[in-house]
User: Fold this.
Amino acid sequence: MKMTIIEGHPDPSSERLCWALASTYADAAVAAGSEVRRIIVGELDFPFIRNSEDFQKSTPPPAIRAAQEAILWADHIVIVFPMWLSDVPARLKAFLEQTLRPNFVLAEASRFRKPLLKGRSARLIVTMGMPSFVYRVMFGAHMIGLLRRMLAMTGIGPTEATLIGSVEAAPERARGKWFAEIERLAQRDGMRGSRHAAIVRRIATIGVLGAVGLGAGAAYLAYSRTR
Assistant:
């Protein structure tokens, strides 16, 4: 299982909770046999996109091209970030705008644009000041739904979400539970990805064998007609 972890906190300090959660997930995934690459958004040098022409036609800066390569390499994408003003931080939003450009996530076609990132799953790990159940019940986890739909448009899915609430007032015991849960999820995501990859390979093999069988049948019929 190949995983790319996007650490989306604007402050790249290792003292941040998001950094610790991303590191815990990465270490557990590697221990379970997965390959991991990390993108630290707060360390990247890139400008904001300011108009439609930039979004559609401009060349991504080197840091963004490297991030796109890491996404293409991965089977599973993990995005870790804090919720600010009920949304993703502006720096992470700018990163997503730069990275998920139309010519990167969608292929041109005559009538439809085909998603190019199919076959990849995702997990969102979101920290917030309010209790997570309040965010789910009173706010309908609005931002999570938007991110899921945005990723689905690129072909990425399913996208699962892990919400960690009350981060500022939580006792040390609760923090220990968060990290234990993140370790468990990293191991589970890796195992599930391995099963998914095996199923995809099996389907591909069946498809190849079926195509060979159909080709052989067609050749036999053509030969029979010429006799």
